[in-house]
Amino acid sequence: MSLLEKLFIQARDNPDNESSSDVLEDAVMSASVFGESIDRTKAMEVPAFNASVDTIAGIVAALPIRLYHREEDRVTEIKNDKRVELLNCDTGDTLTAAEMKKAMVEDYFCSHGGFAYVNKVGNEVKSIHYVDANEVSEMHNEDPIFKKCEYMIRGKRYYDWQFIRILHDTRDGRFGRSVVSQNQNLLAIGYKTLQFEQGLVARGGQKRGFLKSARKLSDSVVRGLKKAFSRLYSDNTENFIVLNEGIDFQESNQTSLEMQLSEIKENNSNDIYSVFKLPAGIIRGGASEDDRDNFIRYCIMAILAEFTVALDRALLLESEKEDGYFFDFDLTEFAKANMRDRWAAWANAKKQGLVQIDEFRSSENLPPLGMDYVNIGLNDVLFDTDSKKLIIPNMAQVIDLETMTVLSAKTPQVNSEGGDNNEGNN
Question: DSSP character for 96?
Answer without folding.
Answer: B
